[in-house]
Specification:
Number of helices: 3
Number of strands: 28
Shape: globular
Helix content: 10-25%
Largest sheet: 5 strands, mixed
Radius of gyration: 24 Å
Structural class: mainly beta
Distance between the termini: 46 Å
Strand order of the largest sheet: 1-25-24-23-22
């Protein structure tokens, strides 16, 4: 049997029933109609590419003649594969000379041109197919570069995260980096942007010994943005807002407005402490429990839940991955255009999306033996009813 309503709530409920004809709102206004749920989109599998070379894939994009440009972590290499999974060529090689790299962070493609971002050497390499064309040093950048893309007029642009600062004055305060953008031919001058692009969250904590160190708050928001030929598409995981702006630094659009962050669920918080306790049982000598407690206490109350976890865009449309905690079996994505949300779809856990172009999505999946394969997907809208 349901519990009785408190007197005040019972009175309000009675008044609401009695005033249904006029609307249960001040002044007799009718309540706003609920927003229609977004359309459910489907993903068609166009082709699945198998190859013994596909492992530790970090990125994949379409390249020359529609080939797949695949960036791998171990060993560090960039492969050109066709849809049969055959190796057609390689782009660059490990080393320190022209056309060589040590640690790749990102890549971009445009026609027959391929850009590689080498984090260890702090430089950008440009290839025409497999042939090295140019190299730009990024030694003058204020921070380590993160992403690379062909910008306006073809000039490459890189992004960096500027530290929000640390120190005693910031102990137990949520801090957030800012993302800045630089042309590779002028790495000392940040590009003008009409809005601030938020980076990742951190905080300063005290160790049991009294030392201060950087930490990550529980359920932290991370930087989410994509560089596209026309500019930047960015999401704020903390309030759900999605915006885009052009490289001219003057025009900006809101693709999805901000909303109040929801609180972390009790189940998610329980799962967090289960992982913490499992870690402490394996390494009892660490101060991991103290750090975990401070990562929750830094919120000083209700812990907010992030809205999103990833952004992938081709400049015309944008995929935004919804935030899920680590145990989720299903991941939901939204497709946005310049007018707002087009629709949503879901993916099984373990499928990683890397690039979007004209509703073609390049992804990497794993089979039951943890063997990786490329999957070309096509976003399909539901049929329009007459």
């Amino acid at each position: 049997m349901s519990a009785p309503l408190p007197p005040r709530l019972g009175l309000l409920a009675t008044l609401c029933v009695l005033t249904t004809a006029a609307g249960c709102e001040p002044g007799g206004r009718q309540p706003a109609a609920p927003a229609e749920p977004p359309a459910r989109l489907t993903l068609d599998t166009v082709v699945v590419v198998h190859s013994d070379l596909l492992y530790f894939v970090q990125d994949v994009k379409r390249g020359p003649d529609g080939l797949f440009v695949v960036m791998k972590l171990e060993p560090t290499e960039v492969l050109l594969l066709n849809e049969a999974g055959d190796l057609v060529g390689t782009v660059g090689r490990p080393g320190e000379g022209p056309g060589e790299f040590q640690s790749l962070l990102d890549l971009d493609t445009k026609g027959d041109s391929i850009l590689l971002l080498d984090g260890a050497m702090r430089r950008v390499l440009l290839f025409h197919r497999e042939s090295p064309v140019a190299t730009w040093s990024l030694r003058d950048l204020p921070e380590t570069p993160l992403k690379i893309a062909f910008g306006a007029g073809g000039a490459p642009v890189v992004s960096v995260a500027r530290d929000s600062g640390t120190g005693l004055r910031n102990v137990m305060q949520i801090l957030r980096d800012t993302i800045e953008f630089y042309r590779v031919d002028d790495p000392g001058t940040p590009l003008e942007t009409p809005i601030k692009v938020p980076g990742g969250e951190s905080f300063v904590l005290r160790s049991p010994s009294g030392d201060i160190r950087d930490g990550m708050p529980a359920f932290a928001a991370h930087a989410q943005y994509d560089l596209v030929p026309t500019g930047v598409v960015a999401a704020d995981a903390r309030d759900g807002r999605v915006v885009s702006f052009d490289w001219d630094g003057r025009t900006a659009r809101t693709l999805r407005p901000a909303s109040p962050p929801p609180p972390v669920s009790e189940a998610e918080m329980d799962a967090l402490w289960e992982r913490v306790e499992a870690r402490v049982s394996r390494d009892p000598g660490e101060d991991y429990m103290s750090r975990a407690r401070q990562s929750v206490e830094v919120w000083d109350g209700t812990v907010p839940r992030p809205f999103s976890a990833a952004v992938i865009s081709d400049g015309s449309e944008t995929l935004v991955g919804h935030y899920v905690h680590r145990w989720a079996d299903i991941v939901e994505w939204s497709l946005l255009d310049r007018n707002g949300t087009v629709g949503t779809f879901t993916l099984e856990e373990g499928i990683r999306l890397f690039s979007l172009r004209n509703r073609e999505v390049l992804s990497v999946g794993r089979d039951s033996m943890d063997v990786e394969h490329l999957v070309v997907l096509r976003i399909v809208s539901p049929p329009t009813l007459p």
